[in-house]
Amino acid sequence: MQNSLSHWSLSLLIFVFAGCAVPQEQKVIQEKAKLPHISVDTFPILSEKKIELSKLYCEKYYGLDDIRLMNPDMVVIHFTAIPTLESTLNLFKKDELSSNRSYIGSYSKLNVSIHYVIDKNGDIYSLLPDTLIARHIIGYNHVSIGIENVALDESELTGSQLESNTKLVNFLKSKYPSINYLIGHDEYNIDSLEHTKFYKSLDSTYAPYDKPDPGQKFMQDLRQNLDSLYGLEFRK
Q: Which domains does the chain show, CATH number per domain?
């Protein structure tokens, strides 16, 4: 069931930008052909209901009338706090939040979502087009692509996941040169870091809170891999 991510990305671009001129589509194909090769499985979570709720969410908290993610600035790394891939995919498939998410549920019924999930064996799943805004990090959804790693906690993160995160971030940087920031979810609430300049919430009460994922060591190893293998250095 392995597919080329470049083929998946092209189909998503056609979905989001339907009606573009044929020469533009040819240009997209040519540009995608230059991307590093990486394989993913697809588990689409997009629905009409999710699109409707996403539009309301983006308008309310970012003042946007569009749910497209244009020229993303950062990649955010998470772990799921869920032990299995099946449970993770089942959670993200839902359109609305579970009732136990009381804090964020009080601000929007939109379920949390993510662009990519990486299983413990390193398999990568594409859930939401990376051309659309996902609800995965308070205040930064409008500028970021999110990657979730299946793990109950930091101790369950694997070397295979580290390798796949490295390849995926390199792919995303190749696809979107605008990406200059890489942060862990546990770093998003550190005011001294430069990425906080992108923070936006039109409701001041809807604010970030402390998160543990994916942990300092995983991010340190990921940054080291990106530098040593691809010569990539990202801001925080």
A: 39-230 (3.40.80.10)
Which H or E run includes 77? strand 74-79
User: What pLDDT digit, counting tens, does each position of 159-191 carry?
Assistant: 999 999 999 999 999 999 999 999 999 999 999
Token reading at 12: 């998503």
Residue 174: which H helix or E strand, with range? helix 159-175
The interaxial angle of helices 216-230 and 159-175, nearest 10 deg, is 60
- Least Cα distance to 182 among 170, 192, 199, 191 occurs for 170
Nearest to 37 by CA among 70, 13, 84, 3: 3
Amino acid at 124: I
Q: CB under 8 Å to 7, separation ≥6 — which residues?
A: none
* Residues lower than pLDDT 70 in the chain: 1-33
Q: Are 85 and 117 in contact (CB under 8 A)?
A: yes
Q: How large is the greatest C-alpha to C-alpha distance in the chain, in angstroms? A: 49
